[in-house]
Please model this.
Amino acid sequence: MPEFPRVYAHRGASSLAPENTMAAFVKAMEVGARRFEFDVDIMGDGTLLVIHDQTLDRTTNGSGPYYDLGFSDLRRLDAGAWFSPAYRFERIPELADVVEFLNRYPQMGANLEIKPCRGGRDLRDRLVGSVAVAVDALEDPSRLLVSSFDHDALTRFHAARPAVDLGWLMDRDGRPGPDWRSGASELGCRAVHPDDTGLTEAGVAEMTAAGFEVNVWTVDDPDRARELAGWGVAGVFTNRPQDFPASALAR
Model:
């Protein structure tokens, strides 16, 4: 059994560069990570943008939701100055930018998280369909894992691209949601992604016994990651890939 799980740089190397930007993905690669996680949602005109929140406030110089905005608005946003003046003028990437990056650096793998779209059913359906088309441009789709908290969206994506591996994102304890075991099994997910908060060795054993790879979010302490590896966890999402040994980053 490996000493450490494989490492996904969460939203890129998000402690070293502004999250969900090309700078963060490049920085993840520079510190030795071979996998990163990123989030995708959709704007009103169909532009697929890489962002975590449903509003622009936290990670850009914009404000409010983006579901009524489009590409021309996206180009005017600064997604780096909030993090550091060194990243002033860093842009929000489009999904196509990340696909191009993955094709340029075939040693890199990624977890694409489809965000729960708050722009209405039609826009959510367009999000799923557009992501399916976008990933067709990947030269090596085996290096991609697609996950979501919106399990209906994940089901729709699977129907469109059944060959792409899936990760079932599990809600935090106490949140309502479908049973992970039946849902992930019926969808044929390769992996389940639980929150580290409250996670137990027995819980991991239950997930692995059900036949799933377990990838845990969000683990910034290498000692905790080592413990999770001993429990059978396959991967962790971390904001601090630079703190992990090269052997873990290269897995």
